[in-house]
Amino acid sequence: MWRVYNTIQFAFTLAWTAGWITLALLLRPFSGPQARLPLRMAARCWAPGLLWGAGARLRVEGLERVDWSKPCLFVANHQSVIDICALFRAIPVPLRFLLKEEMKRVPFVGWYARATGMLFIVRDNARAGAMFRREAAALLARGHRLCLFPEGTRSRNGEVAPFKAGSLQAAIDAGVAVVPVALHGAGRVLPVDGFFRVRPGTIRVRFGTPLPVRDEGRPVARQALAERAQAQVVAMLRELQ
Q1: Residue 47: CB partners within 8 Å, gap ≥ 6?
Q2: Where are the beta strands (DSSP E) in 155-200?
Q3: Over the stretch 140-151, which tens digit does the pLDDT of each residue have?
Q4: Residue 19, φ and ψ in degrees, nearest 5
């Protein structure tokens, strides 16, 4: 029965995603350079629909800790592809993500990502990493919000891997705060292993205390910043268990 149920959910996911992305792309020319309308459609229509289809309940905590009028870099642990839906829905302002370069070639998703100004990176490529940091710093400096998963890949056992310090350099260069975000339960709703083995459950998103990137006027060392962000995410996950 689960296999049949998941097959229906997968078909719904594909149709729902293609439909909303098509509409978002049609409206993109009328939404200005910031692509605010297509981004808010993802947060208010696409993501809630997929969470509902997965039987996932979303609980968001710690919104009051963040100044939503300012740009920032969100750094979250990564448990599942459904993390993006949860973050789109939880964050109350237009949001962009850092995606793998391969996502450009995925129909609909790649088209939407490019049209809305998402950033892409080739993993384990030093030159691509430097280019990403420049692009990300420019994006943040223009007042946008960016989210990335500094572990570099999804966790298969729930443990949070060390955050890659280089991924946080953009926040230091742009002078914007780093906001740690803990995601709990996403890996049980849609596990990494297996093909679309969705199970109903609760996904909790908790925002931590924003971390400044300046200390007495000087930039914080990126390794120290990465360690502080990772430690805060780990602490929040322990509290959520």
Answers
A1: 84, 85, 86, 88, 89
A2: 177-184
A3: 999 999 999 999
A4: -65, -50
